[in-house]
Each structure stands twice: as structure tokens, then as C-alpha cells.
Specification:
single chain, 251 residues, mainly alpha, two-stranded antiparallel sheet, 10 helices, 2 strands, 3% strand
Length: 251
Amino acid sequence: MAKPSVTASALKPFQVSKVTKQGSLSVHVADQLEALITQGKVAVGDKLPTENSLCDSFGVSRTVIREAITHLKSLGLVETRRGVGTSVLRSSTVEARPAERINPTTVEDILHLLELRLTLEPAAAELAAFRYDDEDRQRLEAQHAAFSKTYAAKSQAREEDYLFHFAIATATKNPFFQSFYQQWSQSVIPRAKLLSIDINPISSERYLERVQEEHTYILEAILSRDAQAARETMFQHLNRARNTYALYLEQ
């Protein structure tokens, strides 16, 4: 017999708390859900509550819940299937990684560039949400579709990743954001610095799946003209990348 789905009320005995405005809301939500799963309080095979139920339980927006679920996916804890919902896959984390190993000097270069991008691109996403026009919309949607198509074809989608972010920079209507991307070109994308021999196809595919989903949320926030959500989703996207690559320095 199939296990019943987890409901919002079923989460309450496990001390789910509404989150505060201090720090990243999505991180607080993800931490609580991760603890429930790794402690076995939500079993493998069970479904998490719907987005709306989780919003009510934690007192946050759908954007925050989506970010938290994306983080759980990146840890290999859950999967989301259209029409089914989000189900628990395992009770221990398995980090999605773009490569088996990376030269330490390369990692440092990647982290330095991500640090710079973290100061600029959340603001670019915010401005794009305010300023994009019909031409920008078409460009953003086209580049996102191109990334999804190339990723589905088992490619690293480096150029498509770059062009999606460049489309956001273009939508700011600030030429200096565009200049930043034109200066760095594809090298702004961390995967452009990786050697093919070091890439693990399976873990890399899971990593790119996460990137594709994060791009989707950034795009939705921009096109909804939700500037705050655009800033937050872009920050989380780049910060997750920074955290992932920082792990290579610990090897």
C-alpha cells in the first residue's frame, strides 16, 4: 500500500517554524526540511506538502519555497515530477558536482569571479525586472529555451549559460553590465574552465539540472516584474555555485 502524502499539518509535530527576516529565508526553510528528511521524520518515498501548504507552514512566499526545494534537489534528497509533486529520494545528501576534481588554482579563479558576480548580478536581475521590454522578453525566453535544449542533449551548455546571463545584463539597459559580460565572454561561466577529462557525466547532469531549474525561477521572477524575487533567485543561484566550487578546496 502506498504511503500517505505528508501534509502541512503533519509537519507541525516536527517543529517546523515560521522563518524570520534575518538571513536568507530559503536557507532557513531548506535547513528545516533537510533536517526532517535526514532525521527520518519524513520518510523516503513520502511526498512533501504542496507549495501553498509549505508557504502557509513557514510563512514565506512561493519563491522562497521553490529556492528551498531546489537546494534539496541539489543535495539529491528530493525529486519533483509534474503532476505528482516533490518526493523524498534518500535520507542522506549526495552533492551534485560538475567535475570529479579541479585544479586548486582554477578553483580559486572560479571563486574570485563568482565573488565579483555575486556583487553585480543580483542587482542586474533586479534592474532587468524593472526595465525589460518586449525584445528583451523574447531574447530571455529564447536563451532559456536554448539552454534547456542543449542541456537535454547532454551538453555542458556553456555558451547557452553565458548567453542567458548576458540577456539579463542587456535587459538592464545599462551598458556597463553588458560590458562586464562582453569582457569575460564564456569564461565567466565556471564550467568553461573545467577539463573534459575531469567531468563526471552523471553528477554533472544533476548539476546542470539544478542550473536549468534555477534559471527558470530567475526568468519567471524577471518576467513577473518581481524585482525582489529576481534579486534573491539570482543571488541564490550564484551562491550555490560558489558553495559547490568551494568544496573542491577542501579535498
